[in-house]
Amino acid sequence: MKKTKNHLVYQFKITLYEIDPPIWRRIQVPAKYNFWDFHVAIQDAMGWLDYHLHAFRFRPKHKRKTIEIGIPVDVPDDIEIIPGWEVPITDHFTDPGQAIEYEYDFGDSWFHEILFEGILLKTKGEKYPKCIAGERACPPEDCGGIGGYYWVVNVLQDPGHDEYEDCVGWLKGHAKNYHPYDPDEFSTDKVHFENPKQRWKHAFEF
Questions:
Q1: Percent helix, strand, coil in the chain (nearest 5)?
Q2: Structural domains in the chain (count)
């Protein structure tokens, strides 16, 4: 019997660029997802707060032009961004081993590698999306990109640092309250996935 999208899940590994040791997650999402749904799952698995714009970028086989999928607002006329909610992930993820770029926050510029690992049958009784593995905490939102992340990590390692109190105060005063921040901490049990349709309504319906 041919399996429909409702019976299938797509598995991905998401890794932040240029951070060592790496920060990564492995997630499984329903095959019926579009790129907006996928974006929400990435945000929730990584630990981002979805405060900023995002974009998926890749160049299809035998094509010269890069495709960009995200939220089509505040972009130059010569750049086309396809709304993520209009594009099924099955349109572009066809072969395990494919890797595309996902950027979040065009100011801090967090670049992620999205590696398509395979297509699986859903496990009866399981809820999807789900995060099945990962390592290390997501950087604090709005910390200033990779340089700001390393600044936070280095300052927190030295309570005698001149900027230690300022750093802790910023982490405590953040909307998420990141204090105490442990860059090595991560547990799949603490990942909570929100409904992507509700996230879309919250973002775009006024």
A1: 25, 25, 50
A2: 2
